[in-house]
Amino acid sequence: MDHIDQKILAELTRNARVSHAELAARVLLSRNAVRQRVDRLERQGYIQGYTIVAGSVGQSMVSAFLMIYRKDRMRGADVLAALRTIPEVVLCDVLSGDFDLLVRLEARSLDRVQEIWEQIAALPGVADTVTALTLSNVIRRRGAEPDRADNDGAAGHTAATDGAAGL
């Protein structure tokens, strides 16, 4: 991935609906060259999808963190598979320490957070959960991903070559 690819990812992170023509003007390439680069970034896994955040204008999403302890850390793939099917799960990290997973939910209502929590807590592979609701956001960087170049570049955005944070 070169600096132009990083610019394309930054622009798409700001607005995933930007047209190829407008994106081309912003990164100083032809529309066709941008389309080819976006296609390649999708194939290589740097772009893994486009997200719609549903809700009324001005309605804020309810955000919650669930710390999940699985019954069997080594054979808990069923829990991960179930989490992948819940669209409100926007982050899932495997942890060291007491809890196995850190899951971030972004839902349209507190009732929906509770529905999701009940669904997760009822999974056969889940032993326990702890839930924390987000009261306010102090820092929110969209599209910030860890450098995954050491993971064969299969997923995520990579950090800029000048040492700046990822896109």
Q: Could you explain how this protein is built, in words?
A:
- With 167 residues, the chain is an alpha+beta fold.
- Helix content is 32%, strand content 18%.
- It is built from 5 helices and 4 strands, in the order H-H-H-E-H-E-E-H-E.
- It has helices spanning 3-14, 20-27, 31-43, 77-84, 110-121, and strands at 62-70, 89-94, 101-107, 126-133.
- It has a 4-stranded antiparallel beta sheet with strand order 2-3-1-4, with helices on one face.
- The longest helix is centred in the N-terminal third of the chain and has 13 residues, at 31-43.
Largest sheet: 4 strands, antiparallel
- Counting DSSP E segments of at least 2 residues, the number of strands comes to 4
Give the terminus-to-terminus CA distance.
12 Å
The number of distinct helices, counting runs of at least 4 residues, comes to 5
Low-confidence stretches: 144-167
Following the backbone from N to C, one meets helices and strands in this order, namely HHHEHEEHE
